């Protein structure tokens, strides 16, 4: 199999049921959607992760979906181990993350760059030795008033947001699929111009 036919897709988040439905875990929610589409099941992996492998449809690239068993700010170790284990380059990595600086229900896709203050991305760049990977940034919005940003991302979504959340997760999963089949530029053209 050609290397470009395989992608490591990492959904950032924190472990355990207490965090499962928080804004910080939206990356892992997107991975659950992709696993469902690929009829893949997450299993414990020796890289301190849970991994599911599959294709969304016949002929599509192989997706290695991974969730670290550790906390968000220690995501780098498992990600670098996964890249080594599957013999993949950072350019074949897609990180799905929550993003405070993007309004809720908005996606921004990019390749490379800094961590933008996101501790999970910061740790991956440090461990991988490069920022040259693709990010699917899922907007969770800034907190209202004087709410602390760290508290905001560890809270659940509002009732109004929960109505739209399944669409946002589906869009993010679609974006991952499009990046792997048609490339980042095609995905950006579709999702950066999506009407609100």
From TrEMBL:
Molecular function (GO) terms listed? Answer: peptidyl-tRNA hydrolase activity
Q: Which domain of life is it from?
A: Bacteria
User: What residues does tRNA bind to?
Assistant: 19, 71, 73, 119
The answer to whether keyword Hydrolase applies is yes
What is the reaction catalyzed? Answer: an N-acyl-L-alpha-aminoacyl-tRNA + H2O = an N-acyl-L-amino acid + a tRNA + H(+)
- Entry's localization field: Cytoplasm
**Its Enzyme Commission number?**
3.1.1.29
List the residues marked with site Stabilizes the basic form of H active site to accept a proton: 98
Active site: which residues? 24
Coiled-coil parts of chain: none
Q: In this chain's numbering, which residues are marked as the site (Discriminates between blocked and unblocked aminoacyl-tRNA)?
A: 14
Query: Keyword annotations for this protein?
Result: Cytoplasm, Hydrolase, RNA-binding, tRNA-binding
Uppermost EC category: hydrolase
Q: Report the principal subcellular site.
A: cytoplasm
**Pfam families linked:** Pept_tRNA_hydro (PF01195)
Free-text function comment from the UniProt entry: Catalyzes the release of premature peptidyl moieties from peptidyl-tRNA molecules trapped in stalled 50S ribosomal subunits, and thus maintains levels of free tRNAs and 50S ribosomes. Hydrolyzes ribosome-free peptidyl-tRNAs (with 1 or more amino acids incorporated), which drop off the ribosome during protein synthesis, or as a result of ribosome stalling.
The record's similarity note reads: Belongs to the PTH family.
Quote the subunit structure annotation.
Answer: Monomer.
Name of the protein in question: Peptidyl-tRNA hydrolase
- Organism taxonomic ancestry: Bacteria, Bacillati, Actinomycetota, Actinomycetes, Micrococcales
Gene from which this protein is expressed: pth
């Amino acid at each position: 199999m050609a290397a470009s036919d395989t992608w490591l897709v990492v959904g950032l988040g924190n472990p355990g049921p207490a965090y499962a439905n928080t804004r910080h875990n939206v990356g892992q929610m997107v991975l659950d959607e992709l696993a469902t589409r690929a009829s893949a099941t997450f299993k414990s992996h020796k890289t301190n992760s849970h991994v599911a492998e599959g294709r969304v449809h016949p002929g599509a690239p192989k997706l290695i979906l991974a969730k670290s068993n550790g906390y968000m700010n220690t995501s780098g170790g498992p990600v670098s181990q996964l890249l080594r284990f599957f013999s993949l380059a950072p350019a074949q990595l897609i990180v799905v993350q929550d993003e405070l600086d993007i309004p809720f229900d908005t996606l921004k896709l990019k390749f490379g760059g800094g961590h933008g203050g996101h501790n999970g991305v910061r740790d991956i760049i440090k461990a991988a030795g490069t920022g040259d990977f693709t990010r699917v940034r899922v907007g969770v919005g800034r907190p209202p008033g004087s709410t602390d940003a760290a508290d905001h991302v560890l809270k659940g979504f509002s009732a109004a947001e929960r109505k739209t959340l399944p669409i946002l997760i589906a869009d993010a999963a679609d974006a991952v699929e499009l990046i792997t089949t048609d490339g980042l530029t095609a995905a950006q053209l579709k999702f950066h111009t999506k009407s609100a």
